[in-house]
């Protein structure tokens, strides 16, 4: 990736973060349940999800809806420069970067491989499946271990025609937005 492309990524992140400030962010409850149905995930199976921060689409209600649907929900836990996973049992604690994390025992990064569906936050996603995250690479490092479909959750305007990509970027299989629902990728 050229320095110009890196600069473009940084500029995009700044612009997208600014657009989210003060925006009403969707709770994504019905949408994630439609993704569960779209990918044929059955009660008893595992779904990796996340607890949305104040500037991300999604909500704790989204996570609770997955659990109420009879799914085993794993949530990320920041450990050093990587993500681990723990089962969500309704209890959360304060974690790194001001995130809320499950209180359960750590299962290892490879636990993402047991998930029938992996829901991840993003700042934007393009039609080829490139996901623009916050820039730390936490999800890119762990998503290589995923065996189930990886679905990025964004606002409608954050599903864009193209984004700059680096060799380490892990592409997502689908995007989930409030108006469009599940869009399988690539969507060219």
From TrEMBL:
Its EC number is 6.3.3.2. One of its GO terms (molecular function) is ATP binding. The keyword Metal-binding applies. Its cofactor is Mg(2+). InterPro entries: FTHF_cligase, FTHF_cligase-like_sf, NagB/RpiA_transferase-like. It is an enzyme of class 6 (ligase). One of its GO terms (biological process) is folic acid-containing compound biosynthetic process. It catalyses: (6S)-5-formyl-5,6,7,8-tetrahydrofolate + ATP = (6R)-5,10-methenyltetrahydrofolate + ADP + phosphate. It comes from the Bacteria. It holds the Pfam family 5-FTHF_cyc-lig. Keywords: ATP-binding, Ligase, Magnesium, Metal-binding, Nucleotide-binding. Belongs to the 5-formyltetrahydrofolate cyclo-ligase family. NCBIfam families: MTHFS_bact. PANTHER family: 5-FORMYLTETRAHYDROFOLATE CYCLO-LIGASE, ATPASE INHIBITOR/5-FORMYLTETRAHYDROFOLATE CYCLO-LIGASE. This is 5-formyltetrahydrofolate cyclo-ligase. It comes from Saccharothrix texasensis. The lineage of its organism: Bacteria, Bacillati, Actinomycetota, Actinomycetes, Pseudonocardiales.
